[in-house]
UniProtKB/TrEMBL annotation:
UniProt name for this protein: Glycosyl hydrolase-like 10 domain-containing protein
Annotated InterPro entries: Divisome_Glycosyl_Hydrolase, GH, GHL10
Keywords noted in UniProt: Signal
Keyword Thylakoid: no
Coiled coil regions in record: none
Domain Glycosyl hydrolase-like: 5-289
Amino acid sequence: MSLTEIRGVWLTTTASNVFDSPENIVEAMDFLAETGFNAVFPVVWNKAVTQFPSQVMLQNFGVEINPQYQGRDILAEVITAAHRVGLKVIPWFEYGFASSYNSNGGVLLKKKPQWAALDCKGNLLNKNGFEWLNSLDVEVQDFLLSLILEVVNNYDVDGIQGDDRLPALPSEGGYDKGTVERYKKKFGQNPPQNSKNQQWLQWRADILTDFLARLYKEVKGVNHNLLVSMAPNIHDWALKEYLQDSQRWLEKGLVDIIHPQVYRRDFNSYKSIIDRLVKQQFTDNNRVKLAPGVLMKLGSYNISSDYLLKIIEYNRACGIQGEVFFFYEGLRDNNNALAKVLQKNYYARSAAFPSLQDLNQGNRSQKKAISQKQGLIELFKRWF
């Protein structure tokens, strides 16, 4: 019986040399395929630069590509090397609506200060060191969408990916003049100073959900088979802190695959979150879309082989067919120790990446159930 699973890994520009040369990229893709992976999520947008020659960035900010890769096209190199060995390529727009990190907005807001997100005191929105663009603003949304469409129109990718910064905005934001006026027009009063006020929170989250709906429609308009992948923070913490309403995204069918960042360093913490997601957010119909984000390496932290195997075992026991690891270099540490563990155990058998048809079976079942229910209602109306 053939196996279908999501086995992915994120490729970063930080603490990694994969992108340093075309040879490194080829070697990494070969290594991943041999280890049993079937998808890569290479970063294409971070720190206000792209990992591909971008006319959108050149026209708006005068910077065509990350200067480190001038004269190359990292995304094109990854696609060629990955597809050659059967890996899906889903570019990751890591920074999303974040303008900079500890840089007072960086080059984006220096050129376009009107794009800044503001807190209730009128200051540039900063959360955990990241400064933010105003993701509630249509012009800012248009900019990011144009970057995404540039990729799907010009490259043979298998989808695109947002994360905890796309679509997102720290809930402390939204106090710019334009957003305040929109809120006032709808509710007849200024937004509350309490950024967690339920009405204010949900209204802003709905704007981001509407943006995701637009993104989904535009991407599918280019090629219906492209996958829209999201790696948000965990619901509903992500809603309260970053206006990410992933529950509504699922209900509206705006994601094909989703990778909540279950970045926990002990099994009991991981298990409790998975239990909550499976019981409260994911149903039998849409669980096929779920492949949790798993923290493999960060700074000096490396997951243990025992914990790694426990995670995969528990995922499968919960009916979760896949995971995505942050990040690639964790597989290579200690003479490829964790890659060997995967290759000898759960990834020993090769697995096909799920088709769009596989991923949307739940959506069709849900729509069929709704249609049948509506049919019964109409029948009862005629009878009575």
